[in-house]
Every structure is written in C-alpha cells, then in structure tokens.
Amino acid sequence: MRTRLVLLSARLLDPGTGAFLPETALAVSDDGRIAALGDDREIRALAGPATTVVDLKGAVVTPGLVDGHLHPVSGAELTHGLDLSYCADLDDVREALAREVRTLGRGDWLFGWGLDPNVFGDRPVGTAPFDAVLDGVPAFLLLFDAHSALASRRALELAGVDGPRTFDQASAEVVCDADGRPTGFLQEDAACALVERVAPRPTPEESRERLAEALRSMAAAGLTGGHAMDANGESLALYGELDAAGELALRLRVAPWCQPGTDADGVRALIERQGTGGALWRVAGVKLFMDGTIDNGTAWLERPDCHGESTHAFWPDPAAYTHIVGELHRAGVPTATHAIGDAAVRHALDAVEKARTTGGSEVRHRVEHIETVPDDTLRRFADLGVLASMQPTHCCDFTRADHSDNWSRRLGEERASRAWRCRDLVDSGATVVLGSDWPIAPFPPLGVMAGARHRRPSRDLGMPPHGPEQALTALEALRGMTTAAAYAAGEEHEAGRIAPGFRADLTAFAASPLTTPATDLPDLPVLLTVLDGRITHRATEV
C-alpha cells in the first residue's frame, strides 16, 4: 500500500499517559490509517513520489481534536446573520439593530443570533425595548441558547401569531402579556418554528457553501471531527454532497432528533437510519430532549426556580421518553439526551437504568449539558456507563462567579454553586466528553479546553472563575476532546491515539497544550490539521 503522508520531526503526544512517544515521525497509508511510527530516517524512507512530506520542526502532534457536541448545519445558517453576542446591554442591542436596519431593503428580514438574556437585566425578555428600531421590520433574533428567540411585531404578523398556542413540546410557548398579546418571546423549537417557516430560506447552494466554510474554519482551529447533535432539514444531504466532492473537512457522527409525539413507526425509522452515511460521516445515535434551558425557565428542576418556573419536562409524558429510550437501547442504538436541570438529568439516568435491565449494557448512552446536579446523581454516571457531555465555555461566558447573572439568579445560591460539575464527574469515575455546542458558543477547541481549566469569562480573563474547584487538569481537558470522544463513539480501537492502524486524524501545535497556561491556550498556534491522512489546514510556517 502506498504512503499518503509523512510527518517528520514531530513530538507525538499520547493523551492516555500525557507523555511523548519515543518516535519522532509517522507515515500514513492510502487508506487514511497510521502505517508506521519511527525515527525520521526510517519514516522518510517510506515516502514515494506522490507522498506529501511535512517537516514539523518539533511541533507537538496529538490525536485529532473532536468536538463532542455541535450543530454544523444549523450553526452555519444561524451565524450568517447579525452577531449580537457582544452586546452587553439593551443600548448595545438597539444600536446593533439600528445599524443593520439601515442596510436592509424594503421587506427584507433581519436575522440575529447570540443574544444574551442578561442584557434585559430585571426587565422581562421581549421585543418591547426594540419596537421603535424594528418598526415594520420582520426580525427574528435567536437567543444565545438557540432554544428561544425574539420575533418582531411584523414577523409575528406575517406568521399569523396573535396569541398563545399549544404544542407537543410541553415547555414550548408563545409568551403573551396579561391581555393575551404576544410579547415576541418564543420559547423552544416548536414556538420558534411558527415564525421560521414564513421567513426566507437560503438556497441549497448558499447552504452548502456556508456549511463548507464553517467546516473549513473548524479544521483551521484544529478540529478533525465532531458529534453533530441534529440531522434537521437537509443536513444529511449536505454532508453527503460535501463528502462526495471531497470537501467535508470534519469527520462527523450524526444523531437525528427524536421529539415528543414520535410513534412506533418514527422510532423504527430512526433505528433503520443508523449506520447510513459516507466515507467521513455516518448516522450513529439519537438525540432526545428532557428539558429546555434554565435561562428561559424551561429546564426541568426538582424545585422551581426563583420565578416559579422550570417545573416541567420537555415531554408532556416523561414515561413516553423512558419507553423510547428502552426501545432504542434494545436495538443497540445509543442515545444522547439534552438534560440541563437536576430533575431532567435524574430522569434520563433512570431511563437508562431501566433500559439496562433488558440487557445490552454495552450501549453507550450520553447525557448532554448537565448544568446543575446534586451529589447523589454524580456516581450514577459511572455506575450506569453513561457518558457526561459537557460544554464548559457555557459556564465561563454565560454565568458569573458572583452569581449576578440570569442563570444563577434563577437557581439561587445553593444550585448555582453546583454549576457544570466537571471535576466531580471525573472524580466519580464518569467519562467526560467536552464540546462547544456551536453555535451556542464558539467552536475553537483550544478555547473549550481552556475554559474547562480556568472557568473564567473568555472576554475578560481577569474576572474570577465560577467554581474553580470544578476545573479540569490540562490532561483531562485534552482527553475530553480525544480519548473520551473516541470512547463515546465506540471507536477507541481506531481513534483517540497515535498508533499504527489508528485513523490518521491529527492536530499539530506550536507547543504542548499540556504545558501552555490555560489563559494562553486559545492563542496557541495550530500548525497542521490532518483528516484521514489528508491535510485540511496548514499554517504558512509549516
């Protein structure tokens, strides 16, 4: 078999041990696997006329970094609009909207994303502060959690939304005032869809190029793979097109959604879809939701938040969720359940425990987010073999150490002090997978690993950390995006290590991510990204 790629003068870092391998070079065969490790002389001899040879000049190479939770297609679409994530208060938002309105033609829609509900302070979340700016403008502004949005008066009018609605998603709501008039605040996917369905959509060509560009940017940041937590719209077709054209810059593991109301035929279809895909992507697993978000009052908590909210599950009948988890488990299909509140996490674990009584304990189920949980929940992850999928930058950027933020105020001191318990989960024996949840938070993996270590706001590292006792070590953070991600996918026999026979998905850095200070880590240069033995990013100095 021919040699596709040779890397020389490298320091090969093993995330299993945290030590460098004795070898300094590797060769990749035409099947995209590591064929050999050795010294520079031995490996250089394996190169043929068509082999790409790269002298890394002492760069540090790790297994390719994998984002454990992201939304590539919806992210590429949503982040195409006005970025509101930098807005700190209502005046910032108004100014940003006013600038954007001036660029619009008559009847054009305004799309925004990343809006932090903390900008409203003690005021209710709604479009009232922006009515004057958005007068006559159809606008759809996605809040940072992507579970809720603001729709302007004109957008609601075009969608025919003039009062409350009922939905299969129990926590979905068209929020209305005391007179029954919509405030513009739409909670959860079903409510947002009322407006989204009348808004203009990108062309297939635009969607394809936006996705391709987003994936190229991810590769440049050091990512070689991602666990995509949806298959909505034309996602699978877009992955297939890019894969066939050789333009899929990440290896993707895709989990389609299973929503409340899914019947037996729907579950059967999800099972039958498993394993389909292409060279660099495949459907593997099912994504479910057990609750919404704390910021919106749609999480499922064992005790209400300070507004008396977050008391209900996403599924009107949580037992229906438990039944479906059991059906998927018996079919050997791993589940990934969005569970943010303590009651939601507990119910997800209960469902897995019940499913395991029927056998098939090797199925690796996951719980996503796990923002606040009590002590008695922690050990159950390891006992049940459930993976903890965490996004530490959410804690860094959307909460504060003094608990002055919306998330913390809603929960109160006791529960806010149990924020994103990464350390406790690792110490309890759980496998912790790290990710960004992009577009909710930025995708650069070095920022994710840094946040897991310093737990400070990425825009102001001088601020105190939120729960520093929950920080991970540098090695634990690296494992969260290498070995843990491979294990979560059931691919530890072929991914997450630098060894012969393993996939040649690799990331090279100017220095070791283990010795780079956490606050400096996001700026560590990514010199080379390799996917399936092919270079997807190469810095000019390499």
Automatic annotation (TrEMBL):
One of its GO terms (molecular function) is hydrolase activity, acting on carbon-nitrogen (but not peptide) bonds. Pfam families: Amidohydro_3 (PF07969). It comes from the Bacteria. Residues 53-537 form the Amidohydrolase domain. PANTHER family: IMIDAZOLONEPROPIONASE (PTHR22642), PROTEIN LONG AFTER FAR-RED 3 (PTHR22642:SF2). This is Amidohydrolase 3 domain-containing protein. It comes from Streptomyces venezuelae (strain ATCC 10712 / CBS 650.69 / DSM 40230 / JCM 4526 / NBRC 13096 / PD 04745).
